[in-house]
Amino acid sequence: MFMKNMIRDVIMMIFLSISSVYGRGCVMTQDCLNPGNIPDYDDCIPKAQASIVPPQPMQGEGWANVTGGGSCNTDKDCHNGACVDNACVCRKDGITGGSHCGDFAIQCPEYKDSACCTWQQNRALADNFKLIATMFGNNKVGGCDACAANMMQMWCGIVCSPNQADFMKMHLPYPSNNYRMDSLTGKDNVKVLEMNVKLSKPFTCGLFDSCKNTGIASVSDAFKSALGFLNYQGQTGAVGHGEYLYFHFGQNASYFNITPLRCDNYSQVASPSVLSKLPAQAQLLPSIADPLATKQCPCGACRQTCSSSSGSSGHIELLDSPISFWSGFNATLVAIVYACIALFTSILYWNYRSV
To answer: Which of 268, 266, 251, 263 is nearest to 308 (CA)?
Structure first.
């Protein structure tokens, strides 16, 4: 008995020593819901955990672990789907889930067995990922599917990774709240949760290289560098959702790190094991969903501009007053270009009609 107790104590000491090095667990959560993902600024924002808590599987109330299959008589029984042979068939949009298609699909399936995110955060991610896919995805219209997928993977990791405590710390003493201006809406004194987030340099550079030449990134000076790009994601664009992130960069093993999709070749997504771990909406991006599509973003979008092995500082804080999204945006030039495109399209259309 003495020997058993001693072995148990040794194992516990080893576990505690490992936990002190890599704090597997969660430091941030959200237990409220903003309908339509419209922020209320004060009453419903993410909040800090008083202490590190263990991750949980994506199961139970609020989680949709199935998509379709519920019994039905008419399409009305299947909220965002159709009734086929008395069973609900949901829309294949990466958002709809639940047996009767009335819930939200799990957005970050890689972490479904052990996650720090709540079902409320899952719903917020669903709305945000839809916006990311629209703004940064689709190779044929000036986007890059690798970029959109990488961005979704970053947010899945920050919000849901069971190792959140390794790379995230609160920026201020508990509860780490502050009040900031939302530059996108002009509203002042917006309540936010301020966090320090550590990202690996290789991932950061890979993410930026896949996104820097997308159509949306080319219209603003704020997106011309890896820092500016992340600054917009974690600060300017996040204030309205009650978050404000200070990013730090390095190559320590505890920093958040995944292998980003390369915009010049992301053919690995053809592997079912790789595809199944991508965020639900990333799996449906045009060039990723189509097995025959070329897994490469447009030429010129894949020049490496960020070196993860450079001598730059491994501890970088983003600016409190970031470059405005509209800085460098020439509205007149853009309007002229689109007017010319519309005119040219009309000419082609009428020429086609007259043939």
So the answer is: 251
Phi then psi for residue 307, to 5 deg, are -105, 120
CA-nearest of 236, 251, 282, 105 to 167 is: 251
Closest CA to 247 of 260, 220, 262, 228: 228
Please check the confidence at residue 198 and state whether its pLDDT lies above 70. yes
- Reference 169, options 336, 49, 272, 46; nearest CA is 49
Which three-class secondary structure state does DSSP give residue 44?
coil
Residue ranges per structural domain of the chain:
26-59+113-328, 64-105
| Cα separation, 45 vs 71, whole angstroms | 36
Reading the block at residue 234, the tokens are 């974690």
Using CA atoms, how far residue 141 sits from 109, 149, 302, in Å, is 28, 16, 16
What is the tens place of the pLDDT at every residue in 225-246? 888 889 888 998 899 889 999 9
Confidence of residue 217 (pLDDT cuts 50, 70, 90): confident
More confident residue, 250 or 107: 107
Return the amino acid letter for 8.
R
Parallel/antiparallel/unpaired status of strands 187-200 and 168-170 = antiparallel
Neighbouring residues of 24: CB distance < 8 A, sequence distance ≥ 6? 55, 162, 163, 165, 166
**CA–CA distance, 114 with 277 (Å, rounded to integer):** 13
Q: Is this model's pTM higher than 0.70 or not?
A: yes
Helices (H), 33-174: 119-136, 145-160, 164-167
Per DSSP, the chain holds a count of helices (H) and strands (E) of 9, 10
Nearest Cα to Cα of residue 158 among 64, 224, 238: 238
Identify whether the C-beta of residue 262 lies closer than 8 Å to the C-beta of residue 206.
yes
End-to-end CA distance of the chain: 94
**Which CB contacts under 8 angstroms, 24+ apart, belong to 60-64?**
61/119, 62/118, 62/119, 62/120, 62/122, 63/106, 63/119, 63/122, 64/97, 64/98, 64/103, 64/104, 64/105, 64/106
